[in-house]
Specification:
Blueprint lengths: L1 H19 L2 H18 L7 E5 L2 E6 L4 E6 L4 E8 L4 E11 L5 E3 L5 E4 L5 E5 L7 E4 L14 E7 L2 E6 L2 E4 L13 E2 H6 L39 E5 L4 H13 L9
Parallel strand pairs: 6-10
Antiparallel strand pairs: 1-14, 2-3, 3-4, 4-5, 7-8, 8-9, 10-11, 11-12, 12-13
Helix pairs in contact: 1-2, 2-4
Length: 261
């Protein structure tokens, strides 16, 4: 109501100035009319919110290193991130899933991350800057362990150990410049003992129980993912600066900030 009164007064005074040919009076009244008009004219649009694929940390090695998943229903793109060393590496461009079995990974330059079907293991020997894959094999006629046979996985001493219903599988000890070969059980090592790549210190020692994690381990023992997580982004209205300016103008001439009555 106050805005209408302002408009009527400024319009009347402007017309009076035109009739009387009072130039300064007319200019001042017309300027006042424009201020009121700009204060009450509706401006288009408002900030909008749209849903996007959520991003969440699904596993932590320590305070600086973690795995990040971007996607709905705990499936999508998987990244390895080391904030301290500024490493940001995409492990899977789509369809990566979280591991549901127990998993712990001590800090080291070697990073070994099984895929969800446990058929292969992605590994890095340079702190996550580059990744390659090695296979998980089964002994002779015994097929490789599937997800339903996995009891848990630990990575300690730059070596992966996988506890399964068929025994413990492991990657070779990190001697030399690269892993070269696959993840095998003790039976596999015995079966392939005549193969040159399965001989030497890298495969010595029979593993009868899973190794313990270091007492100072600060990482997680399970992957974590909120399947109901939602994330939104704000699409800002292009007229937002004008809307803010209009709100200040309304306040300065005594009109309400939210709407005009």
């Amino acid at each position: 109501m106050l805005a209408i009164i302002y408009l009527l007064i400024t319009t009347s005074f402007t017309i009076l100035g035109l009739v009387k040919r009072w130039r300064i009076w007319t200019a001042v009244c017309y300027f006042a009319f424009l201020l009121v008009f700009c204060a009450i004219i509706p401006l288009p649009g408002e900030d909008k919110k749209r849903q996007i694929s959520p991003t969440q940390v699904v596993f932590r090695f320590d305070a600086y290193r973690y795995l990040q998943l971007t996607g709905s229903d705990c499936e999508g793109k998987l990244y390895y991130i080391d904030e301290q060393k500024q490493v940001y590496n995409e492990l899977a461009i789509h369809s990566a899933e979280v591991l549901t079995e127990p998993f712990a990974h001590a800090v080291g330059d070697y990073i070994l991350i099984p895929r969800t079907d446990y058929a292969t293991v992605r590994y890095s020997q340079d702190g996550g800057r580059t990744f390659k894959s090695i296979d998980v094999h089964g002994f002779s006629n015994i097929p490789r362990p599937g997800r339903e046979q996995i009891k848990g996985t630990v990575v300690v001493g730059n070596q992966l150990f996988m506890d399964t219903t068929n025994g413990i599988y492991r990657s070779p000890k990190p001697f030399g410049s690269h892993i070269q070969v696959d993840v095998l059980s003790s039976k596999d090592v015995e079966y392939w003992k005549d193969g040159e790549q399965y001989n030497g210190e890298r495969w010595q020692g029979d593993i009868t129980e899973m190794p313990k994690m270091p007492s100072d381990y600060k990482g997680w023992y399970h992957w974590q993912c909120d399947i109901n997580k939602k994330q939104y982004e704000i699409i800002y209205n292009r007229y937002a600066p004008l809307i803010n300016l209009q709100a200040k103008l309304r306040q300065s001439i005594g009109l309400m900030n939210k709407g005009v009555q």
